[in-house]
């Protein structure tokens, strides 16, 4: 009887350990994939197009500046490839004619994301939507003509 009881306890302990490890893995996966209610920052609203379908523009973000790979824009579809070359969290948001609050997810240092939008003739504001970053210089105005 003693061996049977020990085997049952060992099995229960192994099952509990497995269940705890599995639960921890689920929590870590949810945290690392941007879970936790950050879905609003990942979605682009009006003016967004199919990812990767436009003229590529690299946006390099650092503390506290935006550098674009081009300075001349004509109406059309653009894919902004945002590269966080900084050490802290950044993102990219675009507002202008037909584009309102189109933005990438928050990016840790070394991460990148794409944002595809269709730009019409007019003025657009590209900026980091992280609180205070726009005011610190992470803001570019572009003219589409």
Automatic annotation (TrEMBL):
<dbReference type="InterPro" id="IPR008972">
    <property type="entry name" value="Cupredoxin"/>
</dbReference>
<feature type="signal peptide">
    <location>
        <begin position="1"/>
        <end position="29"/>
    </location>
</feature>
<protein>
    <submittedName>
        <fullName>Copper-binding protein</fullName>
    </submittedName>
</protein>
<keyword id="KW-0732">Signal</keyword>
């Amino acid at each position: 009887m003693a061996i049977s009881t020990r085997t049952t306890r060992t099995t229960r302990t192994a099952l509990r350990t497995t269940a705890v490890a599995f639960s921890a893995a689920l929590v870590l996966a949810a945290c690392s994939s941007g879970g936790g209610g950050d879905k609003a920052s990942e979605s682009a609203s009006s003016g967004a197009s199919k990812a990767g379908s436009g003229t590529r523009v690299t946006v390099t973000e650092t503390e506290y500046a935006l550098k674009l790979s081009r300075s001349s824009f004509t109406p059309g579809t653009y894919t902004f490839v945002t590269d966080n070359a900084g050490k802290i969290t950044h993102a990219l948001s675009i507002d202008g004619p037909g584009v309102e609050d189109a933005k990438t997810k928050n990016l840790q240092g070394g991460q990148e994301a794409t944002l595809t939008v269709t730009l019409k003739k007019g003025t657009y504001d590209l900026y980091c939507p992280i609180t205070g970053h726009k005011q610190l210089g992470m803001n570019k105005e572009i003219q589409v003509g």
